[in-house]
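2024-03-11 09:14:02 INFO queue: dequeued item O-acyltransferase WSD1 C-terminal domain-containing protein, len=305
2024-03-11 09:14:02 INFO validating residues
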Amino acid sequence: MDRWRGSALRKPPPAIDARRAEAERGGGGGETGEGPEEPVSPTGRLFREPHFSCYIVSVFGLGARVDLAAVRVGLEATLARHPRFCSVQTVNDVLLGVTSAVLSRFYFRKTGESGRKSIKVRSTLLVNLRKTPGLHALATMMESGKDNGAEWGNRLGYMILPFHIAMHDDDPLEYVRKATKVARRKKSSMESVFTYWSASMIMKIFGIKAAASLCYGMMRNTTLSFSNMAGPTEQVVFYGHPIVYIAPSVYGHPHALTMHYQSYMNIIKLVLAVEEEQFPDAHELLDDFAVSLKLIREAASGKNT
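2024-03-11 09:14:37 INFO prediction written
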């Protein structure tokens, strides 16, 4: 039985029907001057379904005071015309190992159980199967208003990632070794492809509600969510505002703990989304991350000398 399973973090905001709002403003029933609005992608429909109600949010830290007029003009000229996003999801062996070490340290400290005990918990990892276009192709598409062969949106499958909960104080690199075996097996499998196409087939045959119930049930039978997003290696400017950091998160899903790793400018940030009733001392997880990463780095340095 999963010890850390919890309810949704908070109630999702009411959905906004863009077509209805446009019609109320006299926009002709959801059509613009450029033609009918493109429907929401299957993944977007799935996330917004009441059976699922999953919302992805992201916080951008800016290095300058916000110029609202400049941002508004930029959004209207680019993202407002192409409101879908693509994401690059990766599986980093070392981060998987560090996460196992973090969860192990936190669990055995809280329960007081013997570190010799070995437990396995499962995590869901979303994988985008759509080929990611280059930045130049996306920039050209936004400027011209034409697709130019580039595609927005995600085609999301998922994997079930096991995390081994055990203490390896005598050899911290054991966490990384086990994680590497898991990552190699998952990367060479067709698990994410199968889950994507099976969900698509269920959606077409039985409808969006059946697909949402299936995905929600899958998540209820796992312990936590894990995410590892690859960001730009160089600093990005957001309509004249340099971005200092990126912090993605998610809520509405039935997990009490979600761990996001976001890389940006060769720096990785850990973002936690927790159910406060289940994790009132979530800051200790961050402390455990710092300690676990330090021990693994020291062990790796010792092996190389």
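2024-03-11 09:14:37 INFO annotate: The beta strands are 31-32, 35-36, 55-62, 119-128, 156-165, 224-229, 237-238, 241-251, 257-264, 267-274.
2024-03-11 09:14:38 INFO item closed
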